[in-house]
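pasting for ref. prot 1 ->
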Amino acid sequence: MVQIRRYTLAFAVVVLCLAASCKKAAQAQGGMQAIPVQVQKVTLQAVGDSTEFLATLQSRNASVLQPEVEGQITKIFVVSGAHVEAGQAIMEIDPRRQQATVNQQEATRQSQQATLIYNQSQLDRSRKLFEAGVISRQEYDNAVSAHDASKANVQATDASINQQRVQLHYFTVRAPEAGILGDIPVRVGDRVITTTTLTTLDRGGELEAYINVPSERAADVHNGSLVELLNQDATVALTTKVSFVSPRVDTSNQLLLIKAPVPNVDHRFRNDQVLHARVVWKQMDRPIVPVTAMTRLGAQSFVFTVGKGPTGGAAAQQKPVKLGALIGNSYVIEEGLNSGDTVIIGGTQNLIDGMPIIPQA
């Protein structure tokens, strides 16, 4: 009996040990395992309170070529995109009618010149006769008057011929300066008037960005305000400053025109090009975090920061944040983070609030 009791007691001890071991194993299986995550310290960076607008680039060294006269185009000496020198002929408008006018006036002058020569000889003869007392004063004065009238006619015709010759030069359209021609929309045989656009001439050099901002932001923009021209991927292509602020608001749309110079040394921008521009109203210090740190739940954005868990180890803490502008691959944080916070930027897809983590820089 004593031996049977000993076996029973030993069996009970073994059962209790097994039960305790199973309980510990179950607890171990039910606990969360720490996972490695990439982290980054939050620092404040200077960012701008800005707004994006559309900007139109305009050249200060481009001109539109229009004819000075009306007529039919008879010759085009160049092609679109050609480089021309100052004074080079670009196209010709039919000059025959104008040339005929010049020829007619030159013929008229020859007739008037012959009359002038005759009247000059008559005046010389009348002067001698008057001095000899052969003719009266009245006859002499008539000779003087006829001479002076014929001389005035010749001078008037000379002025008219010069004017018509100058007008004749306008029938050949020439480049006012050296540069590159734009598109030539007209063709040989087209009739043009003084408002017809023949082509454009771009002399290269600096451009200007024309930006229209709402009138309510008039007090926030001034000469020297930063302007960032953006690429298609929203990265900054060029940073410049406002050089002109219109003193008046456009009454038709209540927009205020501002301008900023655009250096174009590498010729990557074009006249009349439209692109996005960011006008920076003022500079502020704000936390910036990579987009990989962001998580969303509905309309609310969150980040995970490194905090302390119940056992004292590192744990993920979910914090709601208010997002600002997207700059490159990072978000500006308006609210929710402070300088010195440690943000988890990698491995966030499997995190939950309070999960133990192993931070890795």
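and prot 2 ->
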Amino acid sequence: MYFFGDAVAESTKKLGMRAMVGSGVVDFPTATGKNADDYLANADKFIEKWKGDDLIMPSIADHSAYACSPDTLKKSKILADRYDVMLQIHLSETAWEVNEMLSRYGRRPVAHLDSLGLLDERLIAAHCIWLDPEEIALLARSKTRVRTV
């Protein structure tokens, strides 16, 4: 996840390892893009390059619901669906994140992603530390994959 996915993929492949490598998406400028549209264009090229590789599984890696607008999250989902690749996101990693999402959108992070249509079997939600029982049930019903490390 994050940035320089091609370098990560090439190094990993050279070592003979399998990996899911995510092309990072955020709404602010970094060394690899100016805005979400840049990152999504990068993700499109990254997936085109690596889709079907025997060791590297490309994916889209939205940082989080607080670093990506609802519009960005929806565009990422559309791109992931178009290519039939996984979409990764940090979710409910900290109490701050939960409170920030409640403040911005009036919903906890899981409910926010659900309202945008992101919860399904192709979403990998990383961390999921600050969940309540209803959120756990929603993630299970939607078949969202949870990675707690």
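The CA atoms of residues 115 and 144 lie 14 Å apart.
Residues 5-147 form a domain with the TIM Barrel fold (CATH 3.20.20.140).
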